[in-house]
Amino acid sequence: MKISIVGTGYVGLVTGTCFAEVGIEVTCIDIDEKKITGLNKGIIPIYEPGLKEMVDRNVKKKRLFFTTNLAETLPNCEVIFIAVGTPPDEDGSADLKYVLDVAREVGRNMDEYILVVTKSTVPVGTAEKVRNAVQSELDMREKNIKFDVASNPEFLKEGSAIEDFLKPDRIVVGLESKKAENIIKKLYKPFTLNGHPIIFMNVPSAEMTKYAANSMLATKISFMNDIANLCEIIGADVNMVRRGIGSDTRIGNKFIYPGIGYGGSCFPKDVKALIKTADENNYSLRVLKSVEEVNADQKKVIFDKVMKYYNGDLKGKTFALWGLSFKPQTDDMREAPSLIIIKHLLDAGAKIIAYDPVAIEESKRRIGDTIEYSDDQYEALIDADALLILTDWPEFKFPKFKIIKKLLKGHVIFDGRNLYDFQEMKKLEIDYYCIGLKTI
Length: 440
Fold this sequence. Notes:
By secondary structure, the chain is an alpha/beta fold.
């Protein structure tokens, strides 16, 4: 079986590599010549555990190829996945320019049946626009070639994307023909042998499923952060509350950890896009609008704690930051809380020294030399007035507190991820401020 994936970003590269891993011949296409040249040399443009090894293995086995030429991949290609970016416009809607550009190019170059699948996160109605774009090009060529359009949203978690793809909870596919269904069943058969289901539905429902899933998870995060803020005010311990409600099977214990807000490429963009879709249809998603508002406020909570501790004067203070990426096991800093906190600290006259296991280069690309960086988590602490923990990397969970006390000029930790026990910090004579616990 031969397929093509257009887009070698996070979704496209992981998708193509995982399909190649089960023996399918995959060609990944991107208009970025530098990126394709790098991939052909074994240079992976994103950090995802295990991805480089899998890419190298499948390139060597001649199952995975990279090119900038979409047209040359179409002969004998059964399925083409569109996995290009859909960045948010200023009004929050998803920009479909790149998706439709691909659709038009397919229409200009196809000479036999093909199944066109949107893998990018796109609003309801996009598949129909893709169909129209392909058909308009065929009409201009006066070609009567059959094709199908389907929606197959991704549900990958950064940091565990390969595991998520190879062992999915479910595979959601929206389609409108039996032929397309049979192709999808054949394509995904290696991933369903262990009972992982393919859920077939109509195309608009598949498109909506992706947005609804991410918006529900974002809602759980913002709800718990709101509860955490109230816990601090009334003297409750949010960690105890979380355990209390998480044991209820109707609620579950996932995505109810308080923190400094969600970030990344999916939740912020998808929440905005779904709100925009509703507004365009004269319906207000009031809950989601509040979710977004709570999340924006939550990214400033740690900074507010710092300001209160230092009586509003941060000039001349130095802060060590542990964690820059929006979550562990990725170098992704899109919508990361760290960017908001760094801006507020710098605007207040503070100096910053940051450490992250993989995101330092990405941070340099985004904010340059506005802050200093350290290659070692403990070196970042030297003569700092306080430590701020912004990402819950595993190596931060059991640090050497004696070294922390020795290196920090001020024995203060502001923990945005609730990694430590307040009573233990008290015994160590470390001033400890976290989320959802009244410590100030």
